[in-house]
## 1
Amino acid sequence: MPFYKVITLTADTILYLWKITEDVDYLFKSVRLKDSSLARLEAMKSESHQKGFLAVRMLLEHIGYTDFDLYYDEFGKPHIKPNDCHTEPVEVSISHSHDFSALVISEQKVGLDMEILKELTLKVAPRYMDVSHLENLSKEDELIKATVVWGIKESVFKIKNIVGISFKDHIFEDDFNLADKKCRVQLRFNNKVEHFDIVFDFIENYVCVCAMHSAPNEIG
Ligand SMILES: CC(C)(COP(=O)(O)OP(=O)(O)OC[C@H]1O[C@@H](n2cnc3c(N)ncnc32)[C@H](O)[C@@H]1OP(=O)(O)O)[C@@H](O)C(=O)NCCC(=O)NCCS
């Protein structure tokens, strides 16, 4: 399948999704890669990982960037350079999960995580979240909410990109309703409190979570 969906998360934050139905050869022939990306691709052991990586490049080309515009810092966080088509600097975050690759582009710092629903995420919930937030839910919603919270923590981690942040001890989600598709989060780390707005959505049997810094006048 080609490009799957675009979701406008906020006025300046757009999520792009690729559903991977192509084989690896097709994806490989469809994109141009710089040498460092070719080396990374060749070093990947699983074909599924290769497909996810190539599908991100398909998304980039779909929206007017190429692999040559993308680079990574020493921690593995991606950044994107302006090009002839997009002259303003933007922020980027990437996630892949099984059949999907996802890319978010924003004028502000963002973190993105896409997660497939799987029982294990609920089973290990006490290790990463306040399980009182799972009370009074159906079994199905318990799994969905735990997966959203996992995605929240991954996406906040991806914005901050700081070694030492613990999902359980440093990132605290306010309780929220799944139907609202948004919530607030605090990062309490290194004697500093930071606030984040979270938006999330459901795509087939996946959840997609995006974190952004809260505007200062919205912190309450
Ligand atoms: C790096 C990490 C965020 C990747 O998340 P993931 O769910 O495993 O995988 P995803 O597919 O969602 O994300 C992978 C993408 O994240 C991006 N990424 C990698 N390191 C990153 C970092 N330090 N900061 C921001 N983004 C990063 C990359 O774009 C990568 O894809 P690409 O290399 O193909 O471009 C994750 O492995 C991690 O280290 N998490 C925090 C560690 C932790 O505390 N874990 C559990 C504690 S209970």
## 2
Amino acid sequence: MKSAQSLSLQSFFTAKFAAMYRYLTAACSSEKIIFFKNSNLEDLLNWHAHCIVQGTSLDCEFLSGIRVLTIYLKETSMMSTITSRTTDDGVRIYSRLLLRCYDILIYHLLAPYVWRCKSRYFADLYHLMMSRNHADIGVGTGYFLDRCHYQSGEVRIALFDLQQNCLNFTAARIARFEPETYLCNALEPIQTSAARFDSIALGGILHCIPGDMLQKGAVFDAIRPLMHADTQVFGYTILNQDITKTMLSRCVYAVLHRLKVINGDQDSAGQLKSALEKRFQNVEVSTIGCIALFSASTPFK
Ligand SMILES: C[S@@+](CC[C@H](N)C(=O)[O-])C[C@H]1O[C@@H](n2cnc3c(N)ncnc32)[C@H](O)[C@@H]1O
């Protein structure tokens, strides 16, 4: 039986997305609105894939993405409990279904309009920091790896993730680089016989991990077996403290946090900096909107 807590979460979530859905449908023809309202998950998935292949207008692609996500979240256990948080909470959402909508939702919608950090800032960080011998921890869809400035044959890329779907999706997307893949929990020391890396990205993984920055800092310890003295570590994470928020960012954060997609409502740039400074001699953290972008090098012995 569902708890009163989960029922109130469900109504909160449904109300927020219903408003967004109404707003978006205003931009579409009545024929499409009827289609979206009456179709089931399978129809929507096929339509979404069709939109991407045909290059149909962004409105339609975006709308079908939102609708698919709404149905998906309602149909999964994500709506059922909002009590304790586990490592699995940070990876459960990355189903094959969501990965098909991920880039649009994150990089064309949430990053620029909600977190107020355009995707070019993340891309610039990759451009600056990614080496020819690179490890990516928490790969998602491999959006920035796919856009990196290297040609095939020029770069070694290794993918590390706790979610097999993310590894498969990214490995297929960047197959031209023949990536290595490793299924692992980035909170535990990553033991591998693989040669060490010159750069390591931790893009968007910290806000998935439950606990405070002290606990999330375990990731910086876990990657030590992959590092040598000159390895450059970089990444970004969503913050919730000591930043300027908008009504929209508060609202979306609250929904994603209650759904356990984002974990760590106490995260601040200051805490991130001290977690890094405990482990590295050179640390830089800058904030754009609700996002902290960071880099670190020269680990303490
Ligand atoms: C928000 S996505 C970030 C994707 C990508 N790096 C980007 O910048 O768009 C977070 C990724 O971290 C992975 N992840 C979350 N917790 C993890 C953990 N404890 N160990 C390994 N991977 C984890 C998820 O499966 C997902 O692929």
